[in-house]
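REQUEST ID: PR-0412
SUBMITTED BY: lab tech R.K.
PRIORITY: routine
TASK: structure prediction, single protein chain
INPUT:
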Amino acid sequence: MGGDSILIRNARLVLPEGILEDVDILVEDGKVTRIGRELEPPRGVDVLNVEGKLVLPGVVDEHVHMREPGLEYKDNFTNGTMDAASGGVTTVLEMPNTLPPVENRKVLLEKAHLLASKAYVDFALYGVIHDGNIDEFEEMVYAGAIGFKIFLGPTTGNIPAPSDATIYEALLKSAKLKTPIAFHAENWSLVKYFTEKVKATGRMDPKAHMDARPPICEEEATIRIAYYAKKTRGIALIVHMSALEAVEALRKARSEGVNIWGETNPHYLLLSSDDYDKYGTLMKVNPPIRSREHQEALWKAVLDGTITNIGSDHAPHAREEKEKNVWEAAAGFPGVRTLLPLMIDQALRGKIPLTKIPELLSANPAKLFNLYPKKGTITIGSDGDMVVVDPRSETIIREEDFHSKHPLSPFIGWRLKGRIEYTILRGAIIARNGEVTGGPRGQWIRYTPKTS
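STATUS: complete
OUTPUT:
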């Protein structure tokens, strides 16, 4: 299935390079073929007049945990990709800590086959690296893995953290095959040390989790990964950055030419430790949401280009898992549906330039994971993946609008500027005003290794 054809008329086209007014965009058989003014639609091609509306590239969410296979009691790929479509996300990069974990070629191909018929948006798959499977790296890349995830501490799925030697070896392979490695960067022995100290005081308040994983855990891990990336020339992405000190380490490494990228998520930009009293364990994530000082440092890093990417870290859990005490409650919540609406709201409020949204949420993730310019932009030859936003309207995040089995988000009830009117995947309208239209039409995107 290639795609559909559509002519978008009178768009305010929002790209990292600037905003083009009153532009027509023609998509034929799923690909952008013409961009101009007053284009004539070919015979039989539908015309969508979006005068006064913003048109952005479809979002490439590089960080989702859809929970299938093996953890479907939390959620599944059908629900997750329907939420993606509703929220303007046209491509998702699915994390490997499902059951079984994606640790070899066979599991990767089985997972791709399982998910292909359920995908409402296009998807790519990460593999995971640990001490027991570093020799599987090349095979997984040639089978189509988009990149790898390395967890420096235990996670959903209980994947053990690898040794420094394995991390170094993985980054050497990353450099050779141009395959990025995403790191959950928290020093696990430090996390255990601080957690035991905080637990020993008897604390059970929600902020105890924050104090059990202080910034030094993230800072040390970021410095270590940056150092190995420098020595190996591997490609590293530090995901879900939360701490000022880690951002400073990232800024230093990038200034030295290290091929290291930084990602943060809307919850770190929009929530702070001031909100624990209101939301409790609902906002528990790893690494934890921290004080306003850290939030302000993250915004600065986003605006000055130190943090290059924004993903959702979509991580649903069952209600009973989120409602446990601070030490036992699961970390994470659904985010793929709210990623773009939250960031568009910040742009329309003047917190961030509108042109930074397609840069952070579309172009940079696509570039890092070798999907650009097929994905992440609107240009001749790119996939016709677009989002139409009405900047004069508003969105209220409502529980009933989620497709997730457990729509447990701290953002429910928030009133946002702007409203997503259409999500378009390869020329086909897949969601209209938040309602998914039609069945699953997503495709698995394989990475093709660079051999030069």
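NOTES: The domain at 58-368 is CATH 3.20.20.140 (TIM Barrel).
REVIEWED BY: pending
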